[in-house]
Write a structure and sequence with these properties.
Order of helices and strands of chain A: HHEHEEHEHHHHEEHEEEHEHEHHEHEE
Helix content of chain A: 25-40%
Shape of chain B: globular
Strand content of chain B: 15-25%
Largest sheet of chain A: 9 strands, mixed
Order of helices and strands of chain B: HEHHHEEE
CATH topology of chain B: N-terminal domain of TfIIb
Shape of chain A: elongated
Number of helices of chain A: 14
Oligomer: heterodimer
Number of domains of chain B: 1
Radius of gyration of chain B: 15 Å
Largest interface: A-B, 35 and 36 residues
Number of helices of chain B: 4
Helix content of chain B: 25-40%
Structural class of chain A: alpha+beta
Chain lengths: 469, 125
């Protein structure tokens, strides 16, 4: 782990040139030129679900992905026409356009030399095409309605009792007012204290440099005088510099090169400097808020990230008319993703907590509550009883031979132990190791064995239960 | 609660096992909710339906024109599929009760959501 330094305002100490000249970010050339633009897009995804996300990209965009060693990131190439569809991907959290990738960057020995290299790097990068993409992307975002008000009616229309209205979805994609619903409430399930060092020059020191207040909207200012910031993610043990320093020096050079204005909170362009061991990727962000906050407007304390919910569902490979049950739905993240993406399935969700049900009901329209287990959730001691009971119940409900279950848990030890006693009805097919806000959890994909469920009350020889489908 | 959902629910009171199905439906408030017709979806759901349970539920709701069983070649019979689509997906019970046929236990339906929660004593071990 690198040292945590105080934020500096050296970037802003640099004399800001009120220079009228600026690098033109788009060419006013013929339209056909930009239509044939191809770029590499990077996407951040829940750690562990890189392959799932890559599958979605292949399915929806036809592009193959490279999965980075820097966990939680995938890269793929697209033409600019596909940009809108990229934003409709449901397994990605954030998107950026790649300016340049260095697969094996040679770091010099001393900190001074390394930082000097970063400074010189800024002027040598191929900014032109990525900035064109950024510009096109920005014009998309302006069409998106801000702070879309969510009423009971609109959420009903969206999911329509678990089957979804296909016409609406198609229209939505065309207009690019996708299913992103801005949330107002923080997602408490996310722990901001994450392992890798993330440094953006922000803080109270810089408050005096802010010229606009928080209330101001992102209106189009003088297009040549863009505001920017640099965010540096650094991971690796052999670096002799901090992300703070890299962001500062690289950012300073970017500012000199473009004559942009640095602004930590009200920026137009976010430049990303991702350093993972010897791999460096310079990018420009295409998303502001993370896409994973879509759909959920009423948060609870443990809301599941939408991208994670989507990844879990995808692991099951839902088939048309499958019945998908979430017996611990909380605020409804999983059934919502399910109903939106797999509208040909029947989604049933429930929870033993009426508060959760109320919240979920505000998010989707068709629910039931049920509790098939005696114990509550949330403590490891209880899990010793909960998990076996849960697995047993699921084996009763799922169709022998074809049924699947996907479970997310942090208590892996307990779960594996419980699973070991259920080998006659469940078979573990796949495990995904995920990192949720610093918690190391796992997602298990189970397949139901062909063995029929025998009800305890049936053990004296009556015919088998009729509720299995 | 749709009738398709009702078709999937059973009572979990201790000791009833499979005799907890089907739940006896009683409705005080019902609404018809239009849903986009998807013939493939309906056709594939037909084999999964427990027909006797469906007929019983439809009867208590006084639904008319409920087919007694799937007809031959139903997959291509649009009229049949539309009827089934309506019965399974468009009829919503908003208020009412579900009763366990074995134990008599009542589960309330409120705002379209059945509450199946049992107390500790009632659940299976």
């Amino acid at each position: 782990m690198s040292d945590v330094e105080e934020t500096t305002n050296q970037l802003l100490d640099v004399n800001l040139h009120e220079n009228q000249r600026a690098i033109q970010v788009t060419e006013s050339g013929p339209r056909s030129e930009s239509e044939h633009l191809h770029v590499t897009v990077g996407a951040t995804v829940p750690t562990g679900f890189e392959q799932t996300a890559a599958d979605e990209v292949r399915e929806k965009l036809g592009s193959s992905c490279r999965i980075s060693k820097d966990r939680g990131k995938i890269y793929f190439d697209i033409s600019v026409e596909s940009l809108a569809q990229v934003h409709c991907l449901r397994s990605v959290d954030n998107l950026f356009v790649v300016v340049q990738e260095f697969k094996d960057y040679q770091f010099k020995e001393t900190k001074e030399e390394v930082l000097k290299d970063f400074e010189e790097l800024a002027g040598k990068l191929p900014w032109s095409d990525p900035l064109k993409i950024w510009k096109i992307n920005t014009s998309f975002k302006k069409k998106k309605t801000k702070r879309k008000k969510v009423t009971q009616n609109s959420s009903k229309e969206k999911t329509d009792n678990g089957r979804g209205d296909k016409t609406d979805e198609r229209d939505v994609k065309k207009e690019f007012t996708s299913n992103v619903l801005d949330s107002q409430i923080l997602d408490y399930y996310e722990n901001p204290a994450i392992k890798e060092e993330i440094s953006t020059l922000v803080g109270d020191d810089l408050a005096s440099c802010k010229e606009e207040t928080d209330e101001s909207s992102r209106e189009e200012t003088d297009p040549e005088l863009l505001k920017f910031r640099v965010t540096c993610n650094r991971a690796g043990e052999k670096h002799c510099f901090s992300s703070n320093e890299a962001a500062r020096d690289f950012g300073g050079a970017v500012q000199d090169y473009f004559k942009w204005k640095a602004d930590m909170t009200n920026f137009d362009v976010e430049v990303l400097l991702n350093i993972h061991d010897n791999e460096i990727v310079v990018g420009i962000a295409l998303t502001e808020e993370s896409l994973h906050r879509r759909n959920i407007t009423h948060f609870g304390p443990t809301t599941l990230r939408s991208t994670l919910a989507y990844g879990m569902l995808r692991l099951c490979a839902p088939q048309p008319t499958d019945i998908i049950v979430d017996p611990m739905c909380g605020t409804g993240a999983i059934p919502i993703e399910g109903a939106t993406e797999w509208s040909n399935c029947y989604h049933i969700a429930g929870d033993n907590n009426p508060l959760a049900v109320n919240r979920a009901a505000n998010n989707i329209s068709s629910l039931l509550t049920k509790s098939q287990v005696k114990e509550g959730m949330g403590s490891k001691k209880r899990n010793w009883n909960l998990y076996p009971a849960c697995l047993r119940e699921m084996s009763r409900v799922c169709r022998p031979g074809t049924g699947r279950a996907v479970l997310l848990t942090q208590d892996k030890k307990c779960f594996i132990k419980a699973l070991s006693r259920m080998g006659h009805v469940w078979r573990k097919v796949h495990t995904v190791w995920v990192n949720i806000g610093g918690l190391h959890a796992a997602v298990y994909l189970l397949k139901r064995t062909p063995q029929p469920f025998v009800h305890p009350s049936e053990q004296d020889g009556e015919r088998s239960p009729c509720t299995q489908r | 609660m749709k009738l398709l959902t009702h078709n999937l629910l059973s009572s979990h009171v201790r000791g009833v096992g499979p005799r907890g199905f089907p739940l006896r439906l009683q409705a005080t408030e019902v609404r018809i909710n239009p849903v986009e017709f998807n013939p493939d979806f309906v056709a594939r759901m037909i084999p999964k339906v427990e027909w006797a349970a469906l007929l019983e539920a439809a009867d208590t709701l006084h639904l008319i024109e409920v087919p007694k069983e799937p007809i031959e070649g139903y997959e291509h019979d649009e009229e049949f599929l539309r009827k089934m689509h309506h019965i399974l997906l468009e009829v919503e019970v908003l208020e009412g009760t579900l009763q366990c046929p074995e134990s008599g236990r009542l589960f309330p339906i409120s705002r379209g959501i059945p509450n199946m929660l049992l107390s500790d004593e009632e659940t299976e071990t």
